[in-house]
Amino acid sequence: MKIMEISGGKELSGTIRISGAKNATVALIPAAILTDEEATICNIPEITDTDALCDILKALNVKVSRASESIVINPQEMQDIEITEKFSKKLRASYYFMGALLGKYKKAVMYFPGGCSIGARPIDLHLKGFEALGAKVTNEKNKYIVEAEELKGANIYLDIASVGATINIMLAAVKAKGTTIIDNAAKEPEIVNVATFLNNMGAKITGAGTSTIKIEGVDYLHRCFHEVIPDRIEAGTYIIIGALCGTPLKIDNVIPEHIDSLLSKLEEIGVDLEIGADYVIVSKANSYKPTTIKTAVYPGFPTDLQQPFTVLLTQSNGKSKVVETIFENRFMHIPYLKELGADVTVKNQTVTIIGPSTLKGSNVVATDLRAGASMVVAGLLAEGTTTITNIEHILRGYEQIVEKLTGVGAKITIKEI
Ligand code: EPZ
Predict the structure, then answer these.
(1) Which of 42, 54, 116, 224 is catalytic?
(2) Is residue 156 domain-shared with residue 302, that is, in the same domain?
(3) What does pTM read for this prediction?
(4) Angle between helices 163-173 and 124-132 (to 10 degrees)
(5) Which residue is closest in CA terms to ligand 1's atom 8?
(6) Peptide bond connecting 299 to the previous residue in cis, omega within 30 degrees of 0
(7) Chain-wide mean pLDDT for the chain?
(8) Among this protein's residues, is 116 annotated catalytic?
(9) Which of 183, 231, 242, 261 is close enough to 21 for a disulfide, judged by CB 3.0 to 4.6 Å?
(10) Residue 19 in 3-state DSSP?
(11) C-alpha–C-alpha distance, residues 332 and 335, integer Å
């Protein structure tokens, strides 16, 4: 088993370069099968989610060639076959193959792992969108068969501005007959990145990034070249680390507009930030003010950063609160923050943090990707040694995290035990 060991309390200075966005990549790779020719995508992060999706492509007989951070995907000889449970379970975002296969072949057969640790995470809105386009959904336990004689453009209203449903419906609609409108669409930057990719192949999508997306169906999608946007959640995680340990830390290859809500919260509590066109320089300060954050859909405060931000709030002078409104079970890091010495309590969907508290190294567990990231943040701050188990969660979403942190002075290693 792999564990991470961190010797905390180090001052971190230098530059960390942000990789391509995981949450764009996990949609772009399935979307690439929609081209009738070949798609080249660069700035792909080398994380285990990328590997898992490439395994699924190869199982579908799609030609995949990867070179450092770029990937060439050629689906011209792919087979329209079922994605087995083994492959479907490799990662939740495999569900994007439903929309892509439906869009390409008018049929998708795959297994859906259902909930995960942070919540039930149903896909009812995805399936509702597919049905609106004319597909029939058959569900036997966790096996889904989605098929249509013909896919016809439709007006679809999303009860929740779901990132996954917005993207999956877009993938299913790009080759449908006629026009599809998605209302109450999610506006995350990753959605814009996927829409741009599809338009680069010849799709006709307008309105991505707003709550109304229009997709005019086309018959043919040609070869294209595309670049993954920088990962705003990875960037936010390292900026928070800089606010705790930076002397200073420069986070490079950032789109500051994508993390406006985080940057304004950091400035509100007194973090010293220099915000450039594509970088942020951050230094730790002696004291921070308390605040309340409430997660929301983009451009609100991202749910994926509430766990790392909670660690920062353990150093604020006074009472802070974190209210989670997106997922129902995203506080599994709290018992481990307590273990490290933080004064944190959870009631319903709100964490109350009393600071400042001195964190001391201990043995903790990564319960999910961003909870794991919050354990890394806490371990870098805490006096003494912190070990983290279940680090596979962390390696899914943070490319070269040990190398990036070691490069700026952290004492962090991965050990096989
Ligand atoms: C995406 O998940 C991200 N994952 C999540 O990041 C992120 O936290 C989330 O969006 C919110 O920003 C990827 O992009 C791969 P949703 P997704 O559909 O698409 C409910 C990370 O750490 N819902 O916007 O699954 C759902 O249960 C991950 O990188 C339905 O009820 O999120 C949730 O409560 C974690 N029915 C809410 O909507 C549906 O059909 C928002 O979910 C779909 C969603």
Answers:
(1) 116
(2) no
(3) 0.97
(4) 20
(5) 304
(6) yes
(7) 96
(8) yes
(9) 231
(10) coil
(11) 7
Distance from C-alpha of 288 to C-alpha of 377, rounded to nearest angstrom:
17
How many CB atoms within 10 Å of residue 85? Answer: 13
The predicted pLDDT at position 115 comes to: 55
Query: Do both 44 and 31 map to the same domain?
Result: yes
What are the structure tokens assigned to 330, written together? Answer: 């995203």
Residue range 306-315, pLDDT digits in tens: 999 999 999 9
Distance 248 CA to ligand 1 centre (A): 33
Q: For residues 261 and 273, give the distance between their C-alpha atoms in angstroms, rounded to a whole number.
A: 14
Find residue 136's DSSP bridge partners.
Answer: 147
* Domain end among 190, 208, 227: 227
Residues constituting the chain: 417
Q: List the residue whose alpha carbon is closest to atom 38 of ligand 1.
A: 162
Of 47-61, 289-303, 369-383, the one with minimum mean pLDDT is: 47-61
Range of the domain at 402: 2-19+230-416
126 lines ligand 1 (CB under 6 A): yes
Angstrom distance (rounded) from CA 393 to CA 267: 30
Tokens of 405: 């942190």
Query: Which one of 117, 160, 182, 332 would you pick to mutate in the ligand 1 pocket, going by the greatest count of ligand atoms within 8 A of its CB?
Result: 160
Residues near 393 by Cβ (< 8 Å), separated by ≥ 6?
366, 367, 368, 369, 371, 372
Q: pLDDT tens across 83-101, in order?
A: 888 888 888 889 999 999 9
From 227, 253, 282, the end of a domain falls on: 227
Q: How far lies 403's CA from each of 43, 119, 149, 261, 398, in Å?
A: 18, 31, 50, 28, 11
Query: What is the distance in A from the centroid of ligand 1 to the CA of 328?
Result: 11
Residues 167 and 301 in one domain: no
CB of 304 closer than 6 A to ligand 1? yes
CA of 220 to the centre of ligand 1 (A): 30
Indicate the DSSP class of residue 166: H
Of 261, 331, 267, the closest CA to residue 296 belongs to 261
166 and 187 assigned to the same domain: yes
Tell me what the mean pLDDT of segment 60-89 comes to. Answer: 91
Q: State pLDDT tens for residues 236-261.
A: 999 999 999 999 999 999 999 999 99
CA–CA separation, 330 and 322 (whole Å): 11
- DSSP for 178-230, written as a single string: SEEEEET----HHHHHHHHHHHHTT-EEE-BTBSEEEEE--S----EEEEPPB
**Quick count: other Cβ atoms within 10 Å of Cβ 417?**
8
